[in-house]
Amino acid sequence: MPNVVACYKWVMDEADVKIASDLSVDTSRAKMKISDYDRNAIQAGVEAAAALGGSLIGLSYGDDRVGKSVKDALSRGLDELVWVNDSDAGTADSARSAAVLAAAVGEMSDVALVICADGSSDQFSRQTAPRMGALMGWPVVTAVSGVSFEDGKLVAERQADAGIEVVEVALPAVIAVLPEAAEAPIPGLRQIMQASKKPSREISAAELAGAQAPLASVVEERGYAMDRKNVQWDAADEGWLDNLTEALRKEGVL
């Protein structure tokens, strides 16, 4: 029976991150959550597993704090959960994260599809899914807005600059989905209660072969300030639209 793996990331809630006047970043009061985009990826996994007649396995990589995500993740339709604990996950780049996740998938059986969000709500590097596919030698489809299965193959609609592309790939495969690929419902009381009965397993990153060291490291974090020109026009004034259009043209917007 083919299994589907849905990857998710436990991140800080960006609403709780504060930027000081000197552009320093204060995360001391930030609560944690499943990345907003990963909630859609999990739901896409729920639908894919149902279509394939298989089970849905959740997979996450992070430090000890990921343990607090287990009940929330399982309440969203996962059949089981594996999370990789790594005390150095906070400094891991996309290369390290992808290598750990790929190694964890490699220890699972009968995996037909790995689903990631197109990007995480904290970094949005959009590298994890392509790197996983490269490491595993599986085809990768990114920017996926819709998925179906025909004759044992995956058919994906993906958003491209020129419009919508329809891509067909053989399974097993890795896809990176956009939020519109699957609307993420809010778990109800029944789903939350059932989550405590589902299996979850913690493994150490040190146990995984092929979990490479990071290729890049973050040396500084700071906020940014938008420099607004604050040019205003009154819609009641004649010619305001022409003035606005000309200002946008000078800025290179038009």
Automatic annotation (TrEMBL):
Subunit note: Heterodimer of an alpha and a beta subunit.
Name of this protein: Electron transfer flavoprotein small subunit
Domain Electron transfer flavoprotein alpha/beta-subunit N-terminal span(s) in chain numbering: 22-212
Species: Adlercreutzia wanghongyangiae
Purpose: The electron transfer flavoprotein serves as a specific electron acceptor for other dehydrogenases. It transfers the electrons to the main respiratory chain via ETF-ubiquinone oxidoreductase (ETF dehydrogenase).
Family matches, as InterPro entries: ETF_a/b_N, ETF_b, Rossmann-like_a/b/a_fold
Coiled-coil intervals, chain numbering: none
PANTHER family attached to this UniProt entry: ELECTRON TRANSFER FLAVOPROTEIN BETA-SUBUNIT (PTHR21294), PROTEIN FIXA (PTHR21294:SF17)
